[in-house]
Amino acid sequence: MTAEPILTISGLNVDYGTGPTGVHALRDVDLTLHRGEVLGLAGESGSGKSTLAYAVTRLLSPPGVITGGDVHYHRPGAGPVDILSLSPDALRAFRWQELSIVFQGAMNSLNPVHTVHSQLTDVLKAHRPAMRSAERTARAEELLTLVGISRDRLTAYPHQLSGGMRQRVMIAMALALEPEIVIMDEPTTALDVVMQRQILRQLVRLREQLSFSVVFITHDISLLIEFSDRIAIMYGGRIVEQAGASEIYRDPRHPYSEGLLHSFPALHGPRRELTGIPGTPPHLSAMPAGCAFHPRCGKAHDPCADQIPVLARPEAGQDREVACWLHTRPA
Fold first, then answer.
1. Residue 2 predicted with pLDDT over 60
2. Does the keyword Cell inner membrane apply (predicted)?
């Protein structure tokens, strides 16, 4: 990857609660998003994907707390911005203008008693107070057109829109101030397969048109294979593998990545048997010793039960990392 980084996450730790009853939701997460890139983040429910998104945007609700690490945004033509140190006023200005988020479940994210027009123009009122009312309405119409919705739906309420249209309104809202980074937290989970593909095609077109970077979070790795540049796999609050999308698809190195790939039917080529992953993800309050995946792993051996593998390159010169004792030597 030769593009410059736009977002760097180093050693990020998040806990829910404190003291003996607290749980470690994220552990030493290192991740880099490059300018213009679509970075997919995959893993089962409870792996820490959404917690990572809310930590980066500082939207964690109590009792969630960031206990360590750094998150830096690299503004074009300027020095890095320490997101975790921004004051409340600076953070308010930063969100939506530089970094925006599309939340999971558009019906719950949109206000049911306000029209699409009201909700799209609210963000413009807050961040562009000099804009006149007519200019805000024109921008709202432009945003709806951008995501493939007729501008006459500006007067509609959320319940008058289909699930796919509501999700597109959320994407339009996230793009209102032309941010450099858009984080999408499972935006297609509640939609049917046809609508998922329509929104993903639209997202790819918008990314090419507006040149923003994307972090796309989902449990469906087959979606990420189709349109991501790079994929990071999470398990038990850690990144266990990251590589180019085509490399993950052709040659997954972590047994968990391999299990995820064989849990979904192939869209092309010969039919194959779905194998899935035995067992269930560990509870964050009772994580197993060593590699968190070893109780479910068919390739586990001696060091897996005692030592936590480090995320590292399996071979020198490769642009991929994996945290697995199959590819690194225990200390």
1. no
2. no
